[in-house]
Design brief:
2 copies of one chain form a homodimer.
Chain A lengths: L4 E6 L8 H13 L3 E7 L1 H8 L9 E5 L10 H7 L4 H10 L5 E4 L3 H12 L13 E3 L4 E5 L9 H17 L7 E5 L10 H12 L4 E6 L11 E3 L2 H26 L3 H20 L8 E3 L5 E4 L6 H16 L2 H18 L1
Helix pairs in contact in A: 1-10, 3-5, 4-5, 6-7, 6-11
Chain lengths: 342, 342
């Protein structure tokens, strides 16, 4: 087995755990021979779920973990006190280099804290950003940071831009990805104190293809490949994106049910509408990576189905093969050396 | 004429100026006898446009202004140098108490600067927030602030909440409106430094009906009536709302044009779809007020049509009748006295 990617999967995290998580793992190993999944969670339970499926048995292993971290739990306390939780056990596998990557649909807060505390940051990385993909009219864009790093500094945003560009180019396959900073106007002099400080740093950076400010209105049109912002703004963008999309879709569907005429019309447009809305869905790309850590940590949606879990596991192979962390390390160390020379 | 509301309308500002602006003014005075419109702009041009319409002539007056402020101009410089612009002339009418209110579809930046510099703030108001209405599944919510007040302090957010509540209750007619602060989680301990500081101040305030944090995902569902945030976040919310809405609508429309079957279906659902999307449109309520100034300043969309201009002008009557500025003054002064007593 020359090049196997080992993925620790938190089988107990998420709205549809463990069934959809286990199913996603089964789908992944049935598609790819170069993956091994370590499922963490209640051994008895996971065995009974796995018994429903056919798969190459040497590619899935259960690692018993008796506790579960719930979404509502305070993250720091949960990570500290629940050492035998499926999430902490899976993260420790990455820490001990027994796994290359970690995938979970569980508590975002606990994943962010665990990533920093258990897996740990690459030397020189100041903050580890969470970087989900947003569906756009033309494909997908990477939104970085949506994590818990509120009140970021300009130097963090610069690192986010570099890490995001590497991910977008080598995992998503976008050549020389464009980078924009979220701003309240297109002009360079616009923005709050943080953006005004970060803008010239991004502009001067040779490692990225910075094209300036991006207004929120242009994001759904795919204006830039890597959307840089601090976590509070990123979180608002991510959640509003989902919220407006779901509300509008619901409103349109309800609207069509108003008369017999429109009901018949709705039946006729249904397949086209379904295909369109599927297009506007990023789960086919897998989950959101927490970048800059000593190993890959991937957060899928809390309501992830087996498809997203499967794609998240497969995404880890590309991450490993493309040596993303080594590339991040090189870029970060290079800029630190340049700073010393200055 | 016992109670006439005089509205100074910048007839040269906006994508469709002067035609749609003039048309909106005509529609307003044809609907209401208690409005007088002062149209500022090129007298020759406005006369020729007005000549197309029938309306009570004593209700519209042209005030000549030879210059125009363009959207791309730096706001502060434009306000200072273009004293004879339609925007500055109209704002000066409010300053000199020759008009109760100002309406413009022109440069947001120039309106924000002009509002503060020319019209001036009510005593005790620290910042004047721009407060557009967002369409939701259940009606509309007021988003405050979307203005140029970036890097706001917690005390500003508290004033925004008070002013927004007064507007929502007395102009939009929502009894005891709920107030939420935009946050990245529902729990009280979540947020960035600004939100963490503002949260307990909002919670302790007796003048508002504060219900806690609101996540961006819930905004389109009408989770709160008054959405409090600082201007950078507010601007992102406003523009992303428009962007996702327009992109998704376009995508759905294009998707329906893909096959003969869906094209026929599209024809059948068209009226229902149109009604639904019209529902998801706040222009029927008028423009966004810039609150806390010595007079009312209303910003309509840059691409406002006559309908939005007309509604914005009529909205000024309610604002005056309901004595909104007096109410704001009372609440602000009351809290200042309370602070002194503490």
């Amino acid at each position: 087995m020359p090049d196997i990617t080992v993925v620790a999967v938190d089988a107990m995290g998420g709205d549809h755990a463990p069934v959809e998580i286990v199913k996603g793992a089964v789908e992944a190993v049935n598609q790819r021979k170069d993956i091994k999944v370590l499922l963490t969670g209640s051994e008895v339970l996971l065995k009974s779920v796995l018994a429903e499926y056919t798969y190459p048995e040497n590619q899935i292993e259960i690692i018993d973990a008796k506790e579960v971290i719930e979404t509502a739990e305070p993250p720091v306390k949960a990570i500290r006190s629940k050492k035998d939780s499926s999430l902490v056990v899976a993260m420790n596998l990455v820490k001990k280099k027994q796994a290359d990557a970690f995938v979970s649909a569980g508590s975002t807060g606990a994943i962010l804290v665990g990533g920093q505390v258990i897996v740990g940051r690459i030397k020189g990385v100041e903050r580890a950003p969470l970087a989900p993909l947003l569906p756009t009219m033309t494909g997908v864009s990477l939104l970085i940071d949506c994590g818990a790093n509120v009140d970021a500094r300009a130097s963090h945003l610069l690192q986010f831009a570099k890490m995001g560009s590497i991910y977008m180019e080598h995992v998503i396959g976008k050549k020389n990805p464009t980078v924009g900073i979220v701003n309240i106007g297109a002009e360079e002099e616009k923005g709050n104190a943080l953006v005004k400080e970060a803008y010239p740093m991004l502009k001067a950076c040779k490692d990225i293809n910075f094209i300036g400010s991006v207004e929120a209105r242009e994001i759904p049109y795919g204006a830039v490949d890597v959307i840089v912002c601090e976590a509070f703004v990123g979180n608002v963008i991510l959640k509003l994106y989902e919220g407006v999309g779901s509300a509008l879709t619901k409103k349109i569907k309800n609207g069509m049910m108003g008369s017999l005429r429109s009901k018949i019309g709705a039946l006729l447009v249904k397949p086209a509408l379904k295909a369109t809305l599927k297009d506007f869905d990023s789960s086919g790309y897998g989950g959101a990576p927490l970048l800059g850590l000593n190993g890959l940590v991937v957060k899928t949606h809390g309501n992830a189905t087996s498809k997203e879990v499967c794609n998240s596991i497969i995404q880890c192979v590309t991450f490993k093969r493309q040596r993303i962390n080594e590339k991040i390390q090189e870029v970060i160390q290079l800029s630190q050396e340049e700073n010393k020379e200055d």
